[in-house]
Amino acid sequence: MRQRINPERKATLARCAVVVGAIVGMTSTYAQDSPLGMTIATKGAAKGIPACISCHGPNGEGNAAAGFPRLAGLSAAYLSAQLAEFATGQRKSPVMQPFSRLMTLDDRNAVADYFSKLPAPVGNIAEDPGKIKPSDTGAWLATRGRWSSGLPACAQCHGPGGVGVGETFPPLAGQPAAYISGQLHGWKTGARPPGPMALMPVIASKLSDADIAAVADYYGGEASAGVAPTKVSK
């Protein structure tokens, strides 16, 4: 006897089929748009370049435990520029520098294009600044800054909720707390290039180690883990 499927379950199955089809379609689109980038990102290259996803996650979402940043959804121009800085030694990383030097300009641009087209993971939702208390250091600095010391809010450049703005100011929401902490320490010590308008070294110099940990936890979504400041260079 043929089993009948109730209408509600049938509708749910139909919705699932649409979602699966969309995901398959997106993957196919990425492959068509960035075949070289997808190959390097998912399989690596014969000249000694490992697959990017081995550190940055199968969907470019990053690895919070290891402090490897997310790449998915960042602008292609920003990602390509970072790879170029690793390749020239302007930006330091014992992991990224050797691999970036093995990549041609076309390789770097293709990988950057591939990851820029992957959907960004859901990050923090922008909070109402009026409901944030000064005692919540990370949220306060992120949304309001500390004007008594000339420190603007992170959101003024990186957008509400840390979503990123244009090709110059990358998303912060969803990046591993250890990665954000490491980059801020890098700017503070001069280990990382100053970037657009040399803003970040000035910003970082106004942050204490506790401030850095709080902001990193806020955007990394790991406040409960109490991530301590670390100098992650990747």
UniProtKB/TrEMBL annotation:
GO annotations of cellular component type: periplasmic space
Protein name (Swiss-Prot/TrEMBL): Cytochrome C
Domain Cytochrome c, chain residue ranges per copy: 32-119, 135-223
Binding sites annotated in the UniProt record for heme c 1: 52, 55-56, 96
UniProt PTM: Binds 2 heme c groups covalently per subunit.
Binding-site positions, heme c 2: 154, 157-158, 200
Parts of the chain that traverse the membrane: 12-31
Keywords: Heme, Iron, Membrane, Metal-binding, Transmembrane, Transmembrane helix
PANTHER family tied to this protein: BLL4483 PROTEIN, CBB3-TYPE CYTOCHROME C OXIDASE SUBUNIT FIXP
GO molecular function, one term: heme binding
Gene3D superfamilies for the chain: Cytochrome c-like domain
